[in-house]
Amino acid sequence: MAQAVRHDAMRARNLSLVLREVRTHGSLTRASLAEVTGLTKTTVSKLVGDLLDAGLVVETGAVRAGERGRPGVEVRVSGDRVAALGLELNVDYLAVRVVDLARRVRLRLTQTVDNRLSEPLDVIGDLRRLALSALAQAEGTGLRVVGAGLAVPGPVDVESGEIHSAPNLGWRNVPVGAALDLGVPIRVENEANLAALGELWFGVGRADFLYVSGEIGIGAGLVVNGALFRGARGFAGELGHVVVTPEGPQCRCGARGCLEQYAGQDAFFDAVGDRSPYAHGIDAIVAQLEHGDAATLAACDKAGWALGVALSSAINLVDPHTIVLGGIYAPLFPWIGGVVAETMGGRLAQLRAQAPPVEVSQLGSEAAALGAAGQVLETVVADPAALSERLTDRRDPAPR
Amino acid sequence: MAQAVRHDAMRARNLSLVLREVRTHGSLTRASLAEVTGLTKTTVSKLVGDLLDAGLVVETGAVRAGERGRPGVEVRVSGDRVAALGLELNVDYLAVRVVDLARRVRLRLTQTVDNRLSEPLDVIGDLRRLALSALAQAEGTGLRVVGAGLAVPGPVDVESGEIHSAPNLGWRNVPVGAALDLGVPIRVENEANLAALGELWFGVGRADFLYVSGEIGIGAGLVVNGALFRGARGFAGELGHVVVTPEGPQCRCGARGCLEQYAGQDAFFDAVGDRSPYAHGIDAIVAQLEHGDAATLAACDKAGWALGVALSSAINLVDPHTIVLGGIYAPLFPWIGGVVAETMGGRLAQLRAQAPPVEVSQLGSEAAALGAAGQVLETVVADPAALSERLTDRRDPAPR
Fold it and tell me: Listed GO molecular functions (chains A, B) (predicted)?
C-alpha cells in the first residue's frame, strides 16, 4: 500500500514535470521530453498519453527529426479544454476574464461601478452575476473552467478566502470567497499580489520585480525568482501605507502620511481638482496632460515624488531588480515615471551603483484578473493528476 | 562517465542529507537514519562511515534499542574536528569568533576601536592580526578551520567580497575579502544579514523574523523560512535608510531624514548629550536610564518612535512574523521596546489584526560574527563531500 502511494506520488510529480517542460519549451517531441526530464521514453510516452487524455496537451501535427531514432510528433499545451476564471472586485470596477491553459484570454467582461462604502453582499451579487455569465459562455465553447481566482483591494486570509480589511471599500472581515459561491473552487488574494503575478505570466515576463498597483488604494506585489513573496501572514506588499511623512494627512487606514494620501487615485484626482474620474475616466486626465495643463502636471509631480520616496524605502528594504508601475500609473507613466525615477535615484545614489530601473506595466488594470486566472492554471500545472481525477470524479459537470 | 558523475552527485547529496538529519535530531542510530531519509541501511552505513572518517560526526557511545533489529550506536555532529572563523569589522569594534561544527563557540576575541573615516588597509591589517591569532589558537587545539565569514557595515558584492559602500567607515569599493588574505576561503557579507543568521542559528531560533541591527548604522536582516532574504542584488535590509521624514536631517548616505539620523547610535548618543560612548560604553547609558535620567529617557523615546515609524513601513512591505531588536537596542530594550511596539501598533492597527511582536535579540553585538561563522558551517553541511575532498587534497594544512 505504501508502495502504491509512492508510485502515485511519483506519477503525479512526473506528470507535472512533463507538462511544465512542454510549456517552457512551447512544444516538444516525446524523445526530447525524455532528454530534458531524464525519464525513460516509455515513461514519457505513458505520461504524455495521460496528459493527452486529460486534454492538457495536444499533438501539434508538426513532425521533427530527432537527434536519434525516428522522427517524433510534437506536443504543446492545449488551450481547448481547461480554463480558469480570473475575477477582480475593486473600488471602481468589476472585471472577469476567462483564460485557457495555453494562457490565451478567451473572454473579457468589465463593469464600471462605485463600490465605496458599499454593502458587501450587493457587490458580491453583482460580481457573481458577471462571473456566472462568463462561466456559461466559456462552457458553451467547450471549455472546462476548473477554478476561479478573485482579486480584492486589501489584505486577505488566503486559507479562508476572507478579506481582513479593505479600507477603500469600507469592508472588514468579509468571507467573500464563500459568499461568491460559483460552483468551482475559488482562491481569494490581494489584488496587487495577483497583478504582480499577471505581469509575471502575461506581461513583462521578468522573474524579479516589484509591481506597483496604482488604484484607489496602492498595493505592491514582490516577485522573487518567479514567485510571489507573501510575507509571514500573507500581508506583504502594502506599499500604500508606507510612510511618506509620519505626521502627514490622515489615511483611511488610521495612520497619517501614508503614500496613498499623496499618490493614490483619490489624492491624485483631488490634486487635479476632478472628483468624478469615474465619469471622465483616466483618459480625460491623460488628454489634459497632453495639452500641458499645469495643475494636472503638478499633480503628477507631487504623486511621483511621494511614490519615489516610498519606493526608496521599499528598495532599501527588499532590493527588487526592477520597479513596474501599473494601474493608473501605466497611462500616467510618461508624466510620472521620470519624477519617480529621479526621486528614487536622488535618495539611493550613494548606497548603490544605480537605482533599479522603473518600467511601465504591460497590462494596466487588467493585470490582477489575469493573475487570478493564471494562479488557478498554475495549480493545474503543479498537479495535473489531481485535476484529471476531479474531471473523472465529478458527476455534475455544470456549475451551479 | 556520465553515470559516474551522477553517482558522485547522488553520494554528495545523500551525505548532506544524512548530516542534516543527524543535526536536526541531535543524535540518531543508523537504523533511524535509514527510516528518516528513506535510504537503505547499507547506504546509510556507508555514508555514516564516510562522515566518521571526515570527522564530521562521532559515535555518542549511547546504544539504543531500535524498533526492529539489534540495538544501534547513535551518531551526532562532531565539534572536535571542523570549525569556522566568524569575523566582524565594524565602526567601533573588531570581533573574531571560532565556532565548531556542533555550533559551540570555542574562542572569542574582541577589540574596541574607532574606525570612522579610517584607512581600509590599516583596519584590515588589525583584523588580520586578530584573525591569525585566533586561527593559530584554534588549530593548536586540533580544530581544522575550513573557512571564514566576515561581517561588514554596508552593502557587499558577495561574489567578489567587495564592500560597495560603508558610509560610516567612509569606505567605497574596498575589496576587503581579497585584502584579508587568511589562507582560508573568506565570504564577506553585510553585518545585519549575518547578525540575522546568527540570531537564527545561535539565538532566538525562530525561522521567520526581521532582525534589526542597531549599530552606528542600522541594518536589518529578513529571515524567511529559515533562509536570508537578500534581494535581487544582495542589498536588501537597509532599514537605516528607510524614510522617516523625507526632508529631515542630512544622512551620510546622501539622502535626508533616514532612520539612521533618528535612531542610529550616533544620533542616539547626540540626543543623550554624550559623544564619547566608546569611552563610557553603552553600560553608562543603561545606568543613566536605570537612574531615570530625563534626557536619556527622552532620547529613547525619540529613537523608539522613529524605529516604530520605519518598522511600520517595513511591516507593510514584507510582513515579518516577529521583529527582533539587536545591537545597542538589546541593552536599551527595556526603555525602547515599548515605544517601538506602540508606534508600530498605532500605525498598523486597522490594517491587520495585530502588529508583529517585538522581541529582544539573544546575542547582542555578537550576532554578526556568529552568523558569519555559522554561514561557513552551513556550506559544510550542504556539501560534506566537497569538504572531505578539500581536506584530502590540501598539501599545506597550515594557514599562511
Answer: DNA-binding transcription factor activity
Contact B317 A317 (CB under 8 A): yes
SS3 A90: coil
- C-alpha–C-alpha distance, residues A150 and A186, integer Å: 7
Q: Which residues of chain B, if any, have pLDDT below 50?
A: 1-3, 277-279, 394-400
H helix or E strand, kind and range, residue B10: helix B2-25
For testing the chain A interface, which of B212, B235, B307, B317 should be mutated: the one with the most A CBs within 10 Å? B317
Task: State the DSSP H helix or E strand holding residue A108, giving kind and residue range, or none if neither.
Answer: strand A105-112
DSSP at A96: E
CATH T-level fold of A2-77: Arc Repressor Mutant, subunit A (1.10.10)
Q: Mark yes or no for CB contact B319/A236 under 8 Å.
A: yes
Closest-CA residue of B relative to A153 is B351
Measured CA to CA, the distance from residue A400 to residue B232 in angstroms comes to 45
CA distance A131 to A124: 10
Helices (H), strands (E): how many in chain A?
13, 16
Give, as one character, the DSSP assignment of residue A227. Answer: E
- Which CATH code of 1.10.510.10, 3.30.420.40, 3.60.150.10, 3.10.50.40 fits the domain covering B82-197+369-393? 3.30.420.40
Question: Which of the listed CATH numbers 3.40.50.20, 3.30.420.40, 3.40.720.10, 3.50.50.60 matches domain B204-361?
Answer: 3.30.420.40
pLDDT at B71: 63
Residue of chain B minimizing CA distance to A209: B232
Same fold? B82-197+369-393, B204-361: yes
Helix (H, G, I), strand (E, B) or coil at A1: coil
pLDDT digits over B128-138, tens only?
999 999 999 99
Angle formed by the axes of helices A367-382 and A384-393, to 10°? 90
In chain B, where the domains are located: 2-77, 82-197+369-393, 204-361
DSSP character string of A5-46: HHHHHHHHHHHHHHHHHHHHHSEEEHHHHHHHH---HHHHHH
Q: For B296-346, write each residue's pLDDT tens digit.
A: 999 999 999 999 999 999 999 999 999 999 989 999 999 999 999 999 999
- Asked whether the beta carbons of residue A348 and residue B255 sit closer than 8 angstroms, the reply is yes
B319, A167: Cβ pair inside 8 Å?
no
State how far the Cα of B244 lies from the Cα of B312, in Å rounded to an integer.
10
Beta-carbon separation of A232 and B155 below 8 A: no
Per DSSP bridges, beta strands A27-29 and A72-77 are antiparallel
The Cα–Cα gap between A141 and A301 comes to 48
Q: Which of A254, A317, A318 sits opposite B349 (nearest CB)?
A: A254
Residue in A closest to B241 by C-alpha: A316
Candidate from A164, A317, A350 with C-beta closest to B314 = A317
- Give A208's contacts in chain B (Cβ within 8 Å): 232
Find the radius of gyration of the CA atoms of chain B. Answer: 23
User: Which grid cell is B111?
Assistant: 577589540
Q: Which of B177, B186, B107 is nearest to B146 (CA)?
A: B186
Q: Name the residue facing B155 among A231, A238, A352 (closest C-beta).
A: A352
Sign of CA dihedral B200, B205, B211, B212: negative
The beta-carbon neighbor of A232 closest among B316, B319, B351 is B319
What is the grid cell recorded at B126? 588589525
In the numeric block, which cell numbers belong to residue B4? Answer: 559516474
Amino acid, res. B30 = R
Q: What residues in chain A have per-residue pLDDT under 70? A: 1-6, 62-71, 274-280, 390-400
Cell numbers for B217, please give them. 548604522
The secondary structure of A257-287 as a DSSP string is: SBTHHHHSHHHHHHHHT-S-HHHHHHHHHHH
Q: CA A7 to CA A15: how far, in whole Å?
A: 12
